[in-house]
Amino acid sequence: MVTSSAPTNPPSPAAATVMPAQKSASPPKRKRGRESKRALRERLGEIVSGLRATYPEAECALEYRSAWELLVATILSAQCTDKRVNMVTPALFERFPTVEAFAAAPREELETAIRTTGFFRNKAKNIQGAAHVLLEKFGGAVPNTMAELLELPGVARKTANVVLGVAFQVADGVVVDTHVSRLSQRLRLTREKEPTKIERDLMQIVPQSDWIDIGHLLIHHGRALCTARKPACGECPLQDLCPSAALYLDG
Q: Same structural domain for residues 163 and 178?
């Protein structure tokens, strides 16, 4: 080892070493490994609080005036944006104002009215089928239980949860659409990919009092910031709570 005995002088500005700027957007690193159920629930509580603060008026974006109209709008929203559905339903409900009117509608006329929502033939079939079952079994009224709603054509758990939670304020499950599915995986609230299994996992960690709200909050966040192709992690209020944030920020 060589030791210099020359006096040390402060370096000139030109010779000074310039340290590279550090990224300020990256969230603090969380410990890797399996997260305990307790830790997951605590983190979830912070997530819900953050989302509520960011989207204080989060609610169902579909426009409706009755449980029947909400049911129809939710069936139409499959593989279609809520914005497009809201463009279609005013004229649709004016042309067919009641469950009876939908049941008696000429199929081709109904298909034409909802064509722009996509998959219009199957949706028209399901809507008319639901109208017939309501008239035959439920006196024309939309039921307010999961079991009865699942008897209707075109109604699976997602649609039933929307109707129960929004029209009746009944928390029987969690709405899992494409946004909820995507965000639940990015936030590591589940490792599942099938909607029914994602819903099951969410119901185990989300308090039942939040089952209705969590769907609205995640959907709003998925539309606003946590989009499918390019999530805006640098602007996200959940950045330090999301295990996936560093992947997108570093990329």
A: no
